[in-house]
Design a protein that fits this description.
The complex is a heterotrimer of chains A (232), B (66) and C (254).
Chain A: H1 3-6, H2 10-27, H3 29-50, H4 54-77, H5 82-86, H6 89-95, H7 100-129, H8 137-161, H9 169-195, H10 201-230
Helix pairs in contact in A: 2-7, 3-4, 3-7, 4-7, 4-8, 4-9, 7-8, 7-10, 8-9, 8-10, 9-10
Chain B: H1 6-11, H2 16-61
Chain C: H1 7-12, H2 15-47, H3 61-88, H4 91-123, H5 131-152, H6 156-187, H7 203-235, H8 240-253
Helix pairs in contact in C: 2-7, 3-4, 3-6, 3-7, 4-5, 4-6, 4-7, 5-6
The chains are: A mainly alpha (232), B mainly alpha (66), C mainly alpha (254).
């Protein structure tokens, strides 16, 4: 890489990073299936623990699906930058002429596509297993479509902060909890409001506003955190 | 105000089981917090003295090396 | 470093100077804290009359509320010190930020436990998912996250900077959590139990409360300075001034 000639344009670089990450994820398809399987197992356990009574399951369905998604994403979060730190490609990225925040944003997008998107696809199935009314299903999907990228973005900042440490799984959960409280409240609140026949647009709008904020700020924070955590 | 009696004071109007544990937690946690750096400090200094002593011993054995 | 900062700040923020300054000030802060604390407890436990609604159980307020204030105040101090850490990389600011975290966590923990002990006779339950209680619990998790992140790094200064970053994210998060938890409480009505009474607090109850608030501030200074001194010694263990302290401490023991 030297001179202006060989430094590629921004969009090309982003596309390359995205393609590389998706290819790597596709080569390890088993890892993509794992969070989905995990969510399925957790949701299956609830009727066994609480009894098969339909009214009760209906009442908790939205919350259970959201918390399950959150836990499944937490499971995959740890691995977001691990491979790239181990093979040194993250340091290459930090040295590259393109803005680091943008590259990291692309990586977060790739991570969201490979972990959250499969979860969203099976979310209606999970919700149906708990008898969530069909009329509420679209609200659940809106909530998930806004909440999961928000969690990916917030999680990425924390993963970047723990990049230089050995053990990080439990610590990551501890650090993410305060940040995900508002996300869970508004996402589950929208579903609960829709179920009770109340207006549900306000919490969805709050989630949307938070997502826009996070889309701008989180990649920058992620880049700053990575620089702190990796240079001694 | 009526005259002060210890029994009355300790009974806390029937709420002694809540008031006194609350104050106990307050004092125990703060005392533990206050004393903890002292222990750490003593351990650090002991380690440092050990390191200095080893360094001095090494220098006595072969004074030429730094 | 920026040259608009007065010279005495530079001098004070050098580790050996601050070590001596903190050592000189610390006993006075502790004495003041104990004195004011004793006055406040006498005023609160003996002089103040029992509450007409809550009887004597309300006397937990004299530690509960000052501790709750300290939990937030120390988080603020930690965030400011964290900001200074990240911008100017002053060693002292790192130490102040990181050593404030356990003290703040201790105060937040006391707030939760005393609140629970107060709630049992008043509300009939140890815990309720009230907006204030929930926010306080989230605050404790924020503190624990900062402490955990700091200790997971092998290099202390790097850990301090990472944890400082987390502390700043946290302080942006605190109002958002508060707002969302309030909204959540209005959505799920029925789980809220209003605290009885203390909206119109009488003078005999107010002055012990305020005195205790000052006492906890003094205690914070005393505890923080003790912790900072310890940390500075550990950080600068290769320097001459630390070596002198180590040797004189040994002399003193004999």
């Amino acid at each position: 890489m030297r001179g202006r000639m060989s430094s590629p344009r921004l969009s090309t670089a982003c596309a390359a990073v995205l393609r590389r990450d998706l290819t790597l994820a596709w080569r390890r398809r088993g890892d993509i299936v794992m969070p989905v399987l995990y969510a399925l197992i957790v949701v299956t356990l609830f009727p066994f623990a609480l009894g098969p009574e339909e009214a009760l399951l209906q009442r908790i369905a939205g919350g259970v699906v959201l918390v399950t998604m959150l836990l499944a994403m937490l499971l995959a979060l740890d691995a977001m930058f691990r491979g790239d730190i181990e093979d040194g490609s993250l340091e290459q990225l930090m040295l590259s002429p393109q803005p680091l925040a943008l590259m990291l944003g692309t990586k977060i997008l790739a991570h969201w596509i490979t972990t959250a998107l499969p979860l969203i696809v099976i979310a209606p199935l999970l919700a149906a297993m708990l008898h969530l009314p069909t009329a509420v299903m679209p609200v659940l999907l809106y909530a998930l479509l806004l909440a999961t990228p928000l969690l990916s973005l917030l999680g990425a900042v924390l993963v970047a902060l723990t990049a230089g440490t050995r053990r990080s799984g439990m610590l990551l959960a501890l650090m993410l909890l305060p940040l995900c409280v508002p996300v869970v409240i508004f996402a589950a609140g929208a579903v609960a409001a829709a179920q009770q026949g109340l207006p549900w647009l306000a919490p969805i709008a709050w989630l949307g506003a938070a997502l826009v904020m996070a889309l701008v700020l989180a990649p920058l924070a992620c880049a700053a955190a990575l620089r702190i955590a990796l240079d001694a | 105000m009526t005259s002060f009696s210890w029994d009355h004071f300790l009974a806390m109007g029937g709420y002694a089981a809540y008031v006194w544990p609350a104050y106990a937690v307050f004092f125990v946690v703060l005392v533990a917090d206050y004393l903890s750096p002292g222990l750490r400090r003593r351990r650090n200094l002991r380690e440092l003295r050990g390191r200095l002593a080893r360094q001095a011993a090494r220098q006595q054995r072969n004074p030429s090396s730094p | 470093m920026a040259n608009w900062i007065p010279l005495w700040v530079h001098k004070l923020s050098s580790p050996p100077n601050f070590y001596r300054f903190a050592g000189a000030l610390r006993p006075w802060a502790l004495v003041l804290a104990l004195l004011l604390g004793a006055i406040a407890l006498y005023g609160g436990l003996v002089l103040a009359p029992a509450d007409y609604q809550q009887g004597d159980a309300y006397r937990i307020i004299f530690i509960h509320v000052p501790c709750a204030w300290m939990g937030l105040f120390i988080y603020g101090v930690m965030a400011v010190a964290s900001f200074i850490t990240l911008v100017w990389r002053i060693k002292l600011a790192e130490v102040v930020a990181m050593e404030s975290a356990p003290i703040g966590a201790a105060f937040t923990f006391i707030t939760l436990v005393t609140g629970s002990l107060w709630g049992k006779p008043m509300w009939g339950t140890w815990w309720t998912w009230d907006a204030r209680l929930t926010s306080e619990l989230v605050l404790l998790f924020l503190y624990l996250g900062v402490i955990g992140l700091y200790h997971s790094f092998e290099d202390r200064r790097q850990g301090a900077r990472a944890a400082a970053f987390l502390a700043i994210i946290g302080i942006i998060n605190v109002p958002i959590v508060h707002f969302s938890v309030n909204w959540w409480n209005t959505l799920h009505q029925g789980s809220t139990i209003r605290i009885l009474g203390p909206s119109k607090i009488s003078g005999d109850m107010l002055w012990p409360l305020l005195t205790m608030m000052v006492a906890t501030k003094c205690y914070y200074v005393a505890s923080l300075f003790g912790r900072v001194r310890t940390d500075l010694l550990a950080m600068e263990s290769g320097k001459d001034w630390v070596r002198q302290i180590a040797e004189s401490a040994q002399e003193g023991r004999r």
